[in-house]
User: Fold these one by one.
Assistant:
Number 1:
Amino acid sequence: MPSNLLSGAKILLECLLRENVECIFGYPGGVTLPLYDALYDHPIRHVLVRHEQNAAFAAQGYARATGRVGVCCATSGPGATNLVTGLVDAMMDSIPIVALTGQVTTKLMGTDAFQEADTFGITRSATKHNFLVKNIADLPQVIHEAFYIAASGRPGPVLVDVTKDVFQGQAPYTPVTEIHLPGYKVYSEGHTGQIRRAAQMIWEAERPFVYGGGGLIAANANEEFREFVETTDTPAVCTLMGLGALPAEHPNFISMPGMHGSYAANMGLSHTDLIIALGVRFDDRVTGRLAAFAPHAKVIHVDIDPAEISKNRQADLPIVGDLRRVLPRLTAEVRDLAPTMKAKNAAARQAWWKQIRAWKEEHPLVAEVSETEIKPQHLMAEIDKLSGGRAIVTSDVGQHQMWSAQLIRFNEPRTWINSGGLGSMGFGLPAAIGAQFARPDKLVFAIVGDGGFQMSIPELATIANHKLPIKIVVMNNGYLGMVRQWQELFFNNRLSQVALTSFPDVEKLAGAYGFTGRTVDSVREMPTALADAVAEPGPYLLNVKVSPFENVFPMVPAGGALNEMVLRPPQPVEV
Ligand SMILES: Cc1ncc(C[n+]2csc(CCOP(=O)(O)OP(=O)(O)O)c2C)c(N)n1
């Protein structure tokens, strides 16, 4: 056999090397055997997770922590179908991952062969794009296109399904030097005239308000964002996906808006006359009842994805482009107009800031502390102290996620990692694995509920295996807390199937994997228990027993308008 021939498996790995892939999160199987054989003595690191869903979540954790494309891998059939939740999750949050799946041999396709599933069909709507490779000659081009599509424009998951005969086949390998995708256009520059008009609108507004989202993080535009906010001196909220785009300690940062957003953030959106929407999608969890959202506002909407413009809320001034490129130009236009425009609404703007500060002071987001029980908010405040705005915090889905977002400061982008759009329980722990592999220098907390944690327990093995120093903090309220909260508030407190009456002894559980676990239920001991967990060089599983019936407030009831938010639990009536 001529020596310039490589197997499909080797060609694939060669392409990954050229994409600077350091690490693949995956799980092997029959069809991917040739790929795993090629990985056996290959420089690319493979991390064996314990369930394919977690491979996709870990790849996301890696991508979210770095901005680079995360890679996961699964075999055909059940391996591939196990990836689906992670793909949809990445799709909803615009996270760049490439999923590699094995497919049965081409001539067996369509015969209900062992472990055959129509991965291409199943993942069509779960991915930004997907490919099925049945010809080895197509493999290099497809792999590089997959990476390009995943990372460019609005990022997202791309799946490449590769048949076994392609892995096993032999072909000459020529590196791909060019990507040519005529049907795929990325609009990055933004329209100059529109940018100029936006600057004019910004000066004409009396009560401008910045609504920044995950797009800012995806675009790595945090510096450009900060400069824009400072130049315009506009109050800014960051969504659940956008936290960290502006440092939490920045004087212009108001907090998170939406269903569990702060009073000031929601009141600001309800009273502004100009929303400057940057990399957001007017998600229902932010807008509340759409018809009542920001009723007095004109909207400037900047997004790289034209499909987002006027999808939920009509944009008065759309700009389609990459925030990292558009924002500096917008800032420059705003500066240019300053000499003629600055005085115009100066008094109104001062009054606007005064009002916002008053809203902030009236109902700040503060952690309640009790002398007798650990309030979940208190737990988050202690984690915040240890983090100092710098740690990577991944969360699962539920009450703990909302309290984390409200009460932990994020001063850097890519430090707050959570499943925003899909809200997938079981996300937090594997995402922390990916994040810790990506950022070994960082302190990583995985804050999870006692429900979500039990969806991820198998990954304790992965953590133990690699001695990842992740601090797993279980906010244990004994319930599927967020569902219990809704049952209490909207279903007459008929608590149906939400009690988690059995939970493992974490000392034994972590001990079984060879690391430390501890349960803490005393308020006095909780801060030191957390500090001890951080001080321990390896992994740590801390089970914190918090008050079971605490609810997340503020809360905009489903279908409510933002200014109809409920600020605190109903107080008992005195008689
Ligand atoms: C995979 C999945 N199944 C179900 C849900 C619905 N759900 C949302 S929050 C929640 C409760 C989560 O409970 P827990 O993990 O204990 O966290 P807590 O709300 O108590 O902080 C559930 C069941 C979900 N988001 N994801």
Number 2:
Amino acid sequence: MSNAPLGVGLIGTGYMGKCHALAWNAVRAVFGDVARPRLEMLCETSDAYASARAAEFGFARATGDWRTLVSDPAVDVVSITTPNQFHAEMATAALEAGKHVWCEKPMAPAFADALAMNAAAEGSGRVAILGYNYIQNPAFREIARLVSEGAIGTPFQIRAEMDEDFMADPDTPFFWKNAASSGYGALDDFAVHPLSLIQRLFGRVERVFCDMAMPYATRTDEAGGQRAVETHDMANMLMRLEGGVQASLQVNRCAWGRKGRIALQIFGSKGAILFDQERMNEVELYRAEGDARQQGFARVLTGPQHPPYDRFVPAPGHGLGFNDLKVVECRELLHAIAGEPATVISFAEGIELERTVHAAARSFESGRWVEVAAVGG
Ligand SMILES: NC(=O)c1ccc[n+]([C@@H]2O[C@H](COP(=O)([O-])OP(=O)(O)OC[C@H]3O[C@@H](n4cnc5c(N)ncnc54)[C@H](O)[C@@H]3O)[C@@H](O)[C@H]2O)c1
């Protein structure tokens, strides 16, 4: 058993807030090797809304003031699931109050703020991780194992795509992801996710060339008027990784028909691997060996032989879902807090993802390749 029971504080209860709440509720039941967390306090934009959500999510107390939550003595770890612009202030305050932090990606729209978050984490001695849930997929862990054990020989190239269509409709109203206060757009909303997978497999991005696009110049605002869109919903990146692997990444939040695509193609000297988050329980493996007449991609369904799938369901091929990845991430966080080996993306590792995003934005502005290390700090 790892950990004494920890007191949890949750700030924000939207898409990701519910996902964190489900994970905190489930982690003990699924894994058994961590103590059941105490759901201490939940924060939303008003006391009344916070109370309603606390009752639904199983939290003991509620507040409309996040500073009350991060300073509460019964709270040991804080989930931050608010829009991007709030992450830096909330995470830094929580760390300075001696709390562990589980903050959603990206770290912060401004690189200086992300650096300050990392400095606060280092100064606190607390565990601070980011919500890069896709690294927790048993299918991705299997891909990492296959690559490291040489199943496809020497890897030469990775191509990645992340596409969804929640902004594809020009009539979708303006919301916080269309404002510059959220960052560049698809770069720090989407690109960081596949970049977390690429970085885990092949190391940091050395240099990048990037083009961005804004398909719709305006969207309808709350008053029914037109408001200028301030973020880019599409980006294409060419990259060279440390160690020499060539990479490309295309991201699009306006890709009709794509609902949750994070597709990888990895090509090596002896084979290839394919993955797509829309079919998150499958890995396709091609081995260039044996009788050429029978060569082709083998479709492997994840099962109990791909840990930690076995902790959720004993039957192969039945499949995990998106929310299950957060339960895995929650368990890894608890292991990290207990000082045990854990698969997490810390603030320190997250900084390198943010550095790549800012290098990509600089490339778009200058029309040139940019060395990622040139983004300071
Ligand atoms: N890891 C992932 O796969 C993933 C997926 C989606 C979003 N995200 C990230 O999660 C974060 C939240 O995104 P979302 O889609 O859940 O947004 P959302 O708009 O659905 O939810 C945000 C919530 O925060 C609350 N909030 C805003 N300001 C607050 C404040 N000052 N105090 C307390 N609560 C406040 C809002 O009322 C809302 O309930 C973003 O940073 C986003 O990038 C991560």
Number 3:
Amino acid sequence: MQAETITKPAVLILLGPPGAGKGTQARMLEEKFGLVQLSTGDLLRAAVAAGTEAGKAAKAVMEAGGLVSDDIVIAILRDRLAEPDCARGVILDGFPRTTVQAEALDKLLSENCQKVNAAISLDVEDAEMVARIAGRYTCANCGEGYHDQFKQPKVEGVCDRCGGTAFSRRADDNAETVASRLAAYHEQTAPLIDYYQRQGVLKRLNAMGQIDEIARGLEGIVGEAMR
Ligand SMILES: [Zn+2]
């Protein structure tokens, strides 16, 4: 009889700017590998709702209008990682955001002889991202999505789906806002990229291709990291 190897839950970090499709890809990884996506907001809300010690501490800070400290987030994460659904592994989304948080995470994981298996950066071309996002608009009636360059209605000014003639654009989808969002992302993330690069766990993936193409690339990286 062959002995089964007991593997530690995998810890993956997904880095990518808004618009890079992180949410879609994380859901794919959840399904494919039985992983659980943990975003900071969800973690905090769940801990507050469950009324754990750390959750109570977080609630007090949030009610006072403060920012929840790294210590509290780490305590919440410690509780969450111990839950049975995380046995195969987790995808962290939105945490860590700083190298101080990354160090705290490493320390937490080392308590359990775990480590970050891979930090995956979804890389984008800024100029192209700006064009993609800034060109988006939707039918005001049915919500069908369009794009100035990539998906115009068949009849100009008329929605393909419902025949509506009113369209709307999100105020924060203009080129300037998107460009500054990307700049802020790069500034914030560069130290983390360096940090994980030094640890030898940084994986870069071009996130400008087709969704299923990116998914295949991710599957390869995650499959490897979980071995
Ligand atoms: Zn419509």
